[in-house]
Amino acid sequence: MTRFERSVQLPASVDDAFAWHTRRGAFDRMLPPWVNGRVIERYDRLENGARLVFEVKQGPMPIRWVALHEDVQPPNGFVDVQEKGPLSSWRHQHLFEAAGDDRSRLVDRIDYRLPFGPFGALAVAGRVRSELDRMFAYRHRTLREDLATYAATRDLPRQRVAVTGSTGLIGKSLVAMLRTQGHEVLRIVRRPPATDDEVGWDESELLAPERLGALDAWIDLAGENIASGSWTDAKKEKIQDSRAGRVGRLVDAIERQLETPPRVWLGASAIGRYGDTGEQVVDDDGALGEGFLADVVRDWEAAHGEAKRFAERVVLLRTGVVLSPAGGALPKLLMPGVGPLMVPGDGRQLVSWIGTDDVAAAYLTALLDETFDGAYNLTAPGPVTMSTLVDALSRVVRRPVLAKVPETAIKVGLGEMARETVLASTGAAPRRLLDAGYQFRHETLDDTLRHALGRLER
């Protein structure tokens, strides 16, 4: 039997720290983005006998883990044990200790036994220990920052929020953050509802007003992926309709069908609105650019604006390049997973980036802060060149940069999409976000990449 133990000081009382772990979404917030995993079955309450079933993909083979909770003693701690999984045994104690006024300490103590006896220990012991170090460094930092956010907003009313696009990269992170902060989330899905938190809507049926009830806010994150497949005429029509067209139909349905429509509307947008800005960095008042994406975002934002027919506040979040190994641009830059990295194009194009946690935290801030209204650039304070981004990635993952991929080769492969995405230079600064007092969790590029990839330095 091997013991792994790590502790973290938390900016919250024992009661608040324990309560955070009992809320739906806690496991999702703790699951590192570099782990390709998904929850298959979750419990409604953290109590003795509660089970959590999740699946992790290691290469082509999915590994299923069934965790059984026992010895639940609010607010002092709880235990989860492996009922079924890849290890011979696993017992994880979550112990909460008071550490002063509104301060506590969490001790994660894990006793585990590797499979295949001494041969298993020789083969993978070091790798398992290293992965636990990575995972708990990520978990503890995320927990500490989330509890600091809760402490700063605990006196504000908890919100009842509907979310469209909850299964995307941003949606998953945001829904989990909202729930662990104590807000109620209803996920709008395009299939028959499978769980009690889902409401189905395929754009041709009613919105199930009896299920939605009175809403405080609606967060719309849905839209066709612009970076998958070639931009054929059919694909471009789908991109456009999934944004402006769908939002228009959604706003109409809400206005017609809900007796108590949401008073706050948060709509996803994109810095593609500014087109190619060259070497110039624009703020939230930047002029509309040229190109297909600029036109799409123009119509998309206009459709969001129609929510003013019922909402007191309409906030548009113009998101930049989200850096996460779970999706978006980062996995493409890291391909093929080993060996040297490549710089797309000449490397001089500006990349306006942001970390996933800051995207979710900014949406939460816009939801709760009544002063937020209108359009905001959702990017980190410092745009960088593509070469700078790849060089930073090289330092973090310790893979050399080999060469630059010629623009002509990228254009041949991706066509118009390449010119407006990977090769476009779009510099956007978050002036309004900073003026509103938002404090970024991860301000620097290196820190954002290290947190997202589990490469935090001791």
Structural overview:
36% of the residues lie in helices and 27% in strands. It has 14 helices and 22 strands. The chain has helices at 14-22, 26-30, 117-153, 169-180, 209-212, 233-257, 292-305, 329-334, 356-368, 386-397, 407-414, 416-420, 431-435, 445-453; strands at 2-10, 37-41, 51-58, 61-73, 77-84, 89-98, 104-113, 160-164, 184-189, 198-200, 217-220, 264-270, 281-282, 313-319, 321-323, 341-344, 350-351, 353-355, 374-378, 384-385, 401-405, 427-428. The chain has a 7-stranded antiparallel sheet. Helix 4 (169-180) links the parallel strand 8 (160-164) and strand 9 (184-189). The radius of gyration is 23 Å and the shape is globular.
Radius of gyration: 23 Å
Number of strands: 22
What is the distance, rounded to the nearest whole angstrom, between the alpha carbons of the first and last residues?
26 Å
Number of helical segments with 4 or more residues: 14
| Helix/strand/pairing category | alpha/beta
Largest sheet: 7 strands, antiparallel
Residue-averaged pLDDT: 94
Strand content: 25-35%
Shape: globular
Helicity level:
25-40%
Low-confidence stretches: none
The strand line-up of the biggest sheet is 1-7-6-5-4-3-2
Descriptors:
458 residues; 36% helix; 22 strands; 14 helices; seven-stranded antiparallel β-sheet; alpha/beta
Task: Write a concise synopsis of the structure shown.
The protein has 14 helices and 22 strands.
